[in-house]
Design brief:
175 residues, Rossmann fold, six-stranded mixed beta sheet, 3 helices, 9 strands, binds 1-O-pyrophosphono-5-O-phosphono-alpha-D-ribofuranose
C-alpha cells in the first residue's frame, strides 16, 4: 500500500498556537534567561519557532539527544542519552522542549536525570501530547495540541528519518 499523508494540524494553526505558547511562557517566568533544552531531533522546528515567540526574556539554547524509538513506529521502551550537555544547569530556569509526549518514558527518564543537576526550575513544553498512550505519568506545563493515537509526522517528527521537513503535522498511513 502506498504511503499517504493527511494533514492533521495545518502549518498556520501550529504557528498561531506556538505564538500563544511563547506569550504564556513570557508571562509566567521571572526575569532572567530561560534555558530552552531541545531534545533532538524531533523538536528542532518547534524549538526554532518557540524561541522566536518568546520576546520578553533572554533565551539560551541547549541540545540533548535521547533515543527511545530506533527506526520503528512504536517505542522500544529503551531510553539512552546519545548527546549530553556540556553546560551546567544549576540555578537556571530550564524548559524542556519536546515535539511529542507519547508513552512518557523518555521524559520520565530525562526529568529524573535533570533534577539531579539542580536547576532553579524544570518544566516541560511539548507541541503534541498523546495522552491515550501514556504509561509513565509526566507533568507537562505547556502543551500545544492534544492529539488522538494516530502516527504523525512533519514539523520535526519523522518516520525512519523522513518527513521532518513538512510544515504541517500529518497522519501517515500505509508505510
Ligand atoms: C520521540 C519524541 C520524544 C519521544 C517521546 O523521539 O521526540 O523524545 O519520542 O516518546 P515517549 O513519550 O514514548 O518516550 P524519537 O525517539 O522518535 O527520536 P527523534 O526525535 O530523534 O525522532
Amino acid at each position: 500500500m502506498p504511503a499517504t499523508l493527511e494533514v492533521m494540524i495545518a502549518a498556520e494553526e501550529i504557528q498561531r498556537r506556538v505564538r500563544e505558547m511563547g506569550r504564556e511562557i513570557d508571562a509566567d517566568y521571572p526575569e532572567g534567561p530561560i534555558y530552552l533544552l531541545s531534545i533532538l531531533k524531533g523538536s528542532f522546528m518547534f524549538l526554532a519557532d518557540l524561541a522566536r515567540a518568546i520576546e520578553r526574556h533572554s533565551v539560551r539554547i541547549e541540545f540533548m539527544g535521547i533515543s527511545s524509538y530506533g527506526r520503528d513506529k512504536t517505542s522500544s521502551g529503551q531510553v539512552r542519552v546519545t548527546k549530553d550537555l556540556d553546560v551546567s544547569l544549576e540555578g537556571h530556569h530550564v524548559l524542556i522542549v519536546e515535539d511529542i509526549v507519547d508513552s512518557g518514558v523518555t521524559l520520565t527518564y530525562l526529568t529524573r536525570v535533570l533534577e539531579q543537576r539542580k536547576p532553579a526550575s524544570l518544566r516541560i513544553a511539548t507541541l503534541l501530547d498523546k495522552p491515550e498512550r501514556r504509561i509513565s505519568p509526566v507533568q507537562i506545563t505547556y502543551t500545544g495540541f492534544q492529539i488522538p493515537d494516530r502516527f504523525v509526522v512533519g514539523y520535526g517528527l519523522d518516520y525512519a528519518e523522513d518527513y521532518r521537513n513538512l510544515p504541517s503535522i500529518c497522519v501517515l498511513t500505509g508505510e
